[in-house]
Amino acid sequence: MKIEKIELFLCRLPLVHFFETSFGLSYDRTFILVRVQGDGEEGWGESVAEANPYYSSETTETVWHIVSGFIAPLIIGRRFAHPRDVYPALKRIRGHNMAKAGVEMAIWDLYARATHQPLSKALGGTRDRIASGVSIGIQDSLDQLMDKIEKELAAGYQRIKIKIKPGWDLDAVERVRKTFGQIPLQVDANAAYTLEDAATLARLDPFKLLLVEQPLDYDDVMDHAVLQKQITTPVCLDESIHTVRIARDAIEAKACQIINIKPGRVGGHQASIELHDLCAAHGIPVWHGGMLESGIGRAHNIHLASLPNFSLPGDIAASKRYYQPDLIDPEIDIARDGTIEVPKGPGIGVNIVRERIEKATLRHLSL
Ligand code: OSB
Ligand code: MG
């Protein structure tokens, strides 16, 4: 497989509903789509970097810079026997996993299309449907949060995750438990606490949450290990897990009992498979995170989440919660039982609507 061309599309889409986390509030999403071409086929990827460096240090502008200036020259004109070889070929470039992942995942799509198989098969997926959960941002009031949860449960979602931050935590969880009982429930702090808040976080224990996601800093492992000894809720790491090696250290240090995999954060599908396998070997369950992706990134996530150790419902929900219309047609939807079908066509297996991409594009580059 010889990569002949890489195209970048800087896109912006309005969100159906604003999304608030401990690090900020978004009304729209800015992201980069990657199109690769080679062997008479195309492949599509989506880089999950945001316009701002609040979830991660990468932004859409750093992705643009790194792909156009450093990744493209290493990829264009080069022959790859298999997409697993792409991430190692970029080793000289330190960090910038979201930039690498956008390109690497597009090449996986190209490969799966060229070999006439669904991406899930190429990745080693074993299921034809994935379990779907929702991530609900911080709301203007607890009443509004209850309304949203009621709506998502009625739609069939298998688990609810709510965002927390100091001042929007214990009361919110208590109210959810009072209103909805023992539903599968987890919380995500996006690094909003420090070890000094351990006593507050321990007060979540009686609520029997599935997990608490990234309570402490984005680059921390060791404080999470200290915290985990003081609370019974399983700690799950998101932001801290940038590489397979950090995951190995975190498992060794008992800093987490569960890991959230986002291919964008770790450098693409190959690194995700390795992370998935490492966790399986250590009895650490994983689940698939989300970054408010368009249908293109979302389709990639669905294929990856078909691997066997994705044993908890992911943050992979229906398109209509995010974008209307989405960039793909038909859109991604969930069944009444809260599952999403893994597309069966070649590659990511969804129809990309080019006119909608054109409409969302702020800047385009062909390399
Ligand atoms: O921490 O999981 C996160 C969205 C943007 C950045 C970080 C996170 C999230 C989500 C949304 O929780 C998950 C989704 O795509 O629905
Ligand atoms: Mg998270």
Keywords:
367 residues; alpha/beta; 7-stranded parallel beta sheet; 4-stranded antiparallel beta sheet; globular
Brief overview, please?
This protein has 367 residues and is α/β, with parallel strands linked by helices.
Question: Can you characterise this structure?
Answer:
The protein contains 13 helices and 13 strands. The chain has a seven-stranded parallel beta sheet with strand order 5-6-7-8-9-10-11. Strands 3-2-1-13 form a four-stranded antiparallel beta sheet, sandwiched between helices. A two-stranded antiparallel ribbon has the order 4-12. The two termini are 17 Å apart. Helix 5 crosses helix 6 and helix 9 runs parallel beside helix 11 (269-281). The protein has helices at 60-75, 86-89, 97-114, 119-123, 142-155, 170-180, 198-202, 222-230, 244-252, 263-266, 269-281, 295-304, 354-360; strands at 5-21, 24-38, 41-47, 129-131, 134-136, 160-163, 185-188, 212-213, 235-237, 258-261, 286-288, 339-341, 361-366. The protein is globular and about 55 Å long. The chain is of the alpha/beta class and 367 residues long. The structure holds 2-succinylbenzoate and magnesium ion (MG). Magnesium ion is lined by residues 188, 190, 213-214, 238, 260, 289.
